TrEMBL record:
This is RNA-binding protein 45. The lineage of its organism: Eukaryota, Metazoa, Chordata, Craniata, Vertebrata. Residues 28-108, 123-197, 332-404 form the RRM domain. CDD domains: RRM1_RBM45 (cd12366), RRM2_RBM45 (cd12367), RRM4_RBM45 (cd12369). It is found in: Cytoplasm; Nucleus.
Amino acid sequence: MDEAGSSAGGGGSSFRPGVDSLDEPPNSRIFLVISKYTPEAVLRERFSPFGEIQDIWVVRDKHTKESKGIAFIKFARSSQACRAMEEMHGQCLEPNNTKPIKVFIAQSRSSGSHRDVEDEELTRIFVMIPKSYTEEDLREKFKVYGDIEYCSIIKNKVTGESKGLGYVRYLKPSQAAQAIENCDRSFRAILAEPKNKPSESSEQDYYNNMRQEALGHEPRLNIFPFGHGVVQYFNVASAIYAKYKLHGFQYPPGNRIGVSFIDDGSNATDLLRKMATQMVAAQLASMVWNNPSQQQFLQFGGSSGSQLPQIQTDVILPSCKKKADPETPVKERLFIVFNPHPLPLDVLEDIFCRFGNLIEVYLVSGKNVGYAKFADRVSANDAIATLHGKILNGVRLKVMLADSPREESNKRQRTY
């Protein structure tokens, strides 16, 4: 693990945040790509005009202690961090160093994502407003904090009446942060969710978001009027976990979420039996995954010669088919995500060979992912259609086409 040098001196604040407060308030840390030879004193000198610096971390090599050309600066306020990003991105820190630095808002440590936060995620705020407000009223209240791109009020689609909720989109992240920090508390302003979140369409999405995945949390959701909704999970354990985590949670702040189970007429005994089966199957698969020596015991049942447990699933699977020759050209490659852990390799092979023309299936060491190679695109597509989102032996699968080699992505050009 890399070490980070930091200082609380040098004329800055004497307060140094603990690990738990690094993201308080949200988006108050910036991530910098700098020269390896830039001293911390220069960072403090150039960035202190933007506000109170609580700490500076220069990431260093564990063995040589040399800077890796990466640093973090923690500000006391989000608006200070955002303004530092806007004004210092692309600037040169020293006269003798003409290489421009890169400055981004650092991703939350709990988010699991390693990309920088995009500007679009920092400029739109969500507010609670009186139902009598018009868009012009909303603009008038919030224009004091900066240039507004647009305002919108959420309305009932049937009656056209305001729901007392709205959005304000600013041109710069620092303006949105100023609005959240300084507007009247009755507005309960928070950053809005991005309009177009990227879908999990490839393995790259998985690697960017793997720590954000919760157990089985990709539910079927039905929303009803008056703030009620029904969420149906793929397994009982996920529903229990969701209730435990969300009941009583406030979002937006001041609005308490109440979560309870619905009596849909199902037999409670059957539900418990189903849950127990899923948990036993998951535990069994976990034992095999974490201790390969158990695979032989499971496969041969010690001295009894018993076979592996049958596949437990509601999915109607085709009958087993022969695998393709290992030298057969690969026509399609599938990317597989397992939740909460991978299935044993022999079980995985038994599942995917049923669609025909399977060349190989393998797991990525230390990750909850794997790949399947097919000699025929139709067989691969059949596997996706049948298995994606389904639970087998207590493990939920995501099955999708694997990415082709990625091309250099073009980020949105900054406008400030």
